[in-house]
Amino acid sequence: MAVNTSGVESVGGKGDLQAEVANLAPWFHNLHLPDGTQTAPTHPLGDFPLYKWERLAGHLPQNLEGWSALDVGCNAGFYSFELARRGARVTGIDLNLHYLAQAKWAARQYGLQERVTFREMQVYDLAHTEEMYDLVIFMGVFYHLRYPMLGLDIVAQKVKRLMVFQTLTMPGTEVYEDTHNLDIEHREPMTDPGWPKIAFIEHKLAGDPTNWWAPNHAAVEATLRAAGMRVTERLGHEIYICEPDPDNPACINTWNSAEIISATGRRVMSRRRDDRSDQVLE
Ligand SMILES: C[S@@+](CC[C@H](N)C(=O)[O-])C[C@H]1O[C@@H](n2cnc3c(N)ncnc32)[C@H](O)[C@@H]1O
Fold first, then answer.
1. Residue 76 CA: which ligand 1 atom is closest?
2. Which pLDDT tens digit goes with each residue over 24-52?
3. Is 175 in the pocket of ligand 1 (CB under 6 A)?
4. In the predicted model, is pLDDT for residue 82 greater than 60?
5. Is the beta carbon of 139 within 6 A of some atom in ligand 1?
6. In CATH, what number is assigned to the domain containing residue 72?
7. Quick one: the chain helix, strand, coil %, rounded to 5?
8. In a domain, 6, yes or no
């Protein structure tokens, strides 16, 4: 017996399953359901996000038993389910109720509902939660945020061990090496292709008004560093693996805490054991 999200029960069978998939359309994630049914087999990006996961899968621990994971902007839960299959306890958050309904339904199809919890939340709401997570997936969301550095600062504080970051980017892989303390009269280096830049998209990109920003590669690395993270691996498909860098804590944990407190209404504090910021703030 299958239960669709409208609460109507249907007798299990491939036809019923396909009807439920159709009821829950449109899908952004092409989930491969246990009976082989796919939720978005004609996705314009291909078998999405399976092809991204195939790039990433070998770079994360195979065994995630005992790990907690947070999937930010989880959509229909593709990454949440992959992490749960490896043993993690996963929380997926998204602001979109349509996608959350898909994710909750799919969790039941996979029998993973005990391992995965989906919640309606904005990225910024994480500032008002206490939990930290061993692994944070922050993919496909940064450039959708009206306030991207605020979102990244908040998410980075939630990471105990690893974060996977992915964003839409600007073309180019150059990095201008020394961006320290330019003279006010000599700002030309900022026009160099490798200077960290984030293009602002005022009028939609690919028809989507929530595509607000496109950082270049240098800006991805710079903003992650500024959020207290160290990039350990850069995979294809605009994917970066990073970890907290106790030698380079975010300024929100040191001299600039007042700004994030003003923006969020509270301290968004890392409680990592070796975070030196504790000495500054407590
Ligand atoms: C491009 S999709 C990426 C989905 C998935 N993370 C992936 O990489 O395949 C962006 C997702 O982020 C969600 N999202 C956008 N802005 C958000 C916000 N401020 N807080 C939480 N989720 C957000 C959208 O609803 C959508 O499900």
1. 27
2. 999 999 999 999 999 999 999 999 999 99
3. no
4. yes
5. yes
6. 3.40.50.150
7. 30, 20, 50
8. no
